[in-house]
Amino acid sequence: MAVGTVLITGGTGYIGSFTSLALLEHGYDVVIVDNLYNSSKVALDRIELICGRRPEFYKVDITDEEALSKVFEKHPSIDSVIHFAALKAVGESGEIPLEYYRVNVGGSISLLRAMSKNNVTNIVFSSSATVYGDATRFENMIPIPEHCPIGPTNTYGRTKAMIEDVITDHVKAQRSNLQKAGKPFEQWNGALLRYFNPCGAHPSGIMGEDPQGVPYNLLPLMGKVATGDREKLLVFGDDYPSRDGTAIRDYIHVVDLAKGHLVALNYLRENKPGVKAWNLGSGRGSTVYEMIKAFNAVIGRELKYEVVARRQGDVLDLTANPTLANEELKWKTEIPMEQACEDLWRWVNNNPQGYRQDPPPELLAAVKGPKA
Q1: How far is CA 270 from the centre of its chain?
Q2: What is the pTM of this model?
Q3: Burial status of residue 172 (CB atoms within 10 A of its CB: 0-12, 13-18, 19 or more)
Q4: Which of 10, 12, 248, 331 could, after both became Cys, cross-link 39 (CB 3.0–4.6 A)?
């Protein structure tokens, strides 16, 4: 008997696939909707290889309310949604802002309308630390706590902050309307998970991030340079007031991050808190140069890099204060960023074509071994 059935939007993407795996491993049934814009259906095969269970999959665009509604109708046992589906590149968001608002904000509204129509009442939202913007503009806000004022500095961050508001207003209205009508209302809940810099891959080496175009984030870029796919790494600015001049970020292993979604979902189902925001991060800030050094140590050579101008909307320091999640969700990161570098290298070194190739037989054998 399943613990429950969860719809995961963007479930074949990087964080979505790892969260689907975590839920299946903890007894949930999982239904994925994804338009495969920046992901691959092969992720479903890898999930099944690792845990022996396969999510249901529908190729659906998040902005298509009717198609979403049909998936809910087909699976009346769905009572919760984990919402990842979004465009996610900070730089690109400044170049095509309307598309980011259409997909991220418009898609979230379509999802919430389909949920309401089908009486699906819990939503865990994949938000981002970018909603805080430059927290150094306030005293004592680094590491960043949840009560830090929201003030995103780029279009991507603004879409995330806007969706947080939409979810908050929607859940509050549902609760209020039902309460006024004398009906049960506490079933409506939302978790806003503001996470920092996801990285790493599955320790088995058969599942990881597989960006379809040029990745925008530091670790997948390092992987591409290490495999020879790209000539050099670009360091966006070395004139920040940090210990070595490069920007500071809080890197969190994707396996830890996936567990964060699982415990947040369980918290909503058990405690019915209304809408709550939690930071998912390690509380440890690393500079770009420190990350390059850690990755160099793993691969045993130095990656070529070039310092270029800062990117529009980038800030000095995004380090989490994860105390609230530590205390309320009983969750904390367990895997250090050095291990994330090792796991990433195992993934890209063995799968330079990502999901467009079969993983090496010895890695497959290691995964299949115990189940035989």
Answers
A1: 23
A2: 0.96
A3: middle
A4: 12
CB 213 within 8 A of CB 221: no
Does residue 94 contact residue 312 with C-beta atoms inside 8 Å?
Answer: yes
Identify the CATH homologous superfamily for domain 5-371.
NAD(P)-binding Rossmann-like Domain (3.40.50.720)
- The amino acid sitting at 54 is R
Q: What is the per-residue pLDDT for 226?
A: 96
Give pLDDT, residue 90: 84
The answer to whether 101 is a known catalytic residue is no
The CB density around residue 265, as the number of other CB atoms within 10 Å, is 26
- Which of the residues 14, 100, 156, 267 is marked catalytic? 156
**Tell me: the pLDDT tens digits for 330-365?**
999 999 999 999 999 999 999 999 999 999 999 999
Tens of pLDDT, residue by residue over 152-199, are 999 999 999 999 999 999 999 999 999 999 999 999 999 999 999 999
